[in-house]
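lol ok so funny story. i was supposed to be doing the assay writeup but got distracted and ended up predicting the structure for this chain instead. priorities right. anyway since i did it might as well share w the group, maybe its usefull for someone
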Amino acid sequence: MNELKHLKRLSAIKTNAGIKFLTPAAFPGNHCPLHTALALSAKIKGMSTLVVGTPECGTYSRNIISQLKAEDGGLHWMYILEANEVVFGCRTGLIGAIKEMDKAGAKTVMLILTCVPEVIGEDIEGIVHEIQPQIEARLTFIRMGHFKCNSYPSGYWKTLTAFGTLMEQTQTRPDIVNILGRSREENRIPPPELLTALEKQGFHLRMLAPKSDIKDFIASPDAKLNLVLSPFMNPLAEMMRQQYQVPLISLHETYDVLGIDYLYQSVAEALGIVWDREYTETRKIAVSLQDQVKEAFHGVSYISTRIGALTPLPLALYLTQFQMKPLLLHLDEFYPDDRKWAKALNEKGYDPMICHMVNDAADVLVLEHLGPDFSFGELPDGTGQIPCVPYLDDLYGQIGYERTVLLLSRMLKAFQRTNMPETRRKIHGAS
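and the output, tada:
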């Protein structure tokens, strides 16, 4: 198809720069990573922010802060560059602003540098190194130039990784387990069975996520184990493993029942415990559903559109066990961990096209012309001829057997409520 000639295959993708927009239709733009960096930081109790940029960045920042309920205990200021600072840098003025925030009572300050400070090469690391001994507030920083990325996810994981520079080495407490990517206030999503089982075993679960206290992040190197429930948290967990020797087990990439068995056993061994029969029933259901999906979806081709915070490559790798064929995958961002998942998928013999979808009306025409049997994620403005699993956002923060049950159940429901069996018989030449 000529419409897809500009796209690269997964094997050729090394960074975000290799991910092309699916269609060239007019588009107002994704959220700047400043949006997610500021929104995340403002939701952390005790965290203040200082956005450094142009008047446009200042206006955008004010809108972000006004539209969310920032946690108490934080100041949210903007440092607007003057014309001469765009040319000669803003070191002197920025140091003055940081000192003013310190006097105003800020306890921890996230410095967020936008595009212009990045372009002119402002030495924020040097500024922080110089000013930190002179003030009480703890400082950390992130560089958030939008020109370096397609979209906003880096605003999450880079901000979270920056929290790591505030941490303090301390003695390990054997009863503490850090849960990275889950808040106690996420009442709309049931807690994973694994977390409930750990609490019954007597462990204290420290939740590290939006609405956590910055003090929890600072104290987190005392944990016995880091359990990662979100792709945004993997870089922070890896940094903690390297710098503070906190072991990590990443749970959000695995869907296969045997893979989940291995992860749960790894958790038990790391914590020196033995599971009872907490997961027996859910595991049985997951095994049964895998058998049904293997029969119904064998050889089905599919695309993946916007599927929330679920990472497409680990999901695609799981689907290979049903012989499902990925034709085209939308990636919001090529995460640091994605290289290993891309390599594993390529080794299985699959090399799908990779793109970034932003224009629903234009994109759907290309996707329907591509003719996949199935779609993970919605196809807004489409004809409905491609069956899809539309609602995946609520799988965020879910792990283990119960998440696999939810995913496979929705796949089978989509299969049953469409004429997909007849379509597949025509495609595969069956009578």
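The CA atoms of residues 173 and 296 lie 48 Å apart. The chain is about 40% helix and 15% strand.
back to the writeup now i swear
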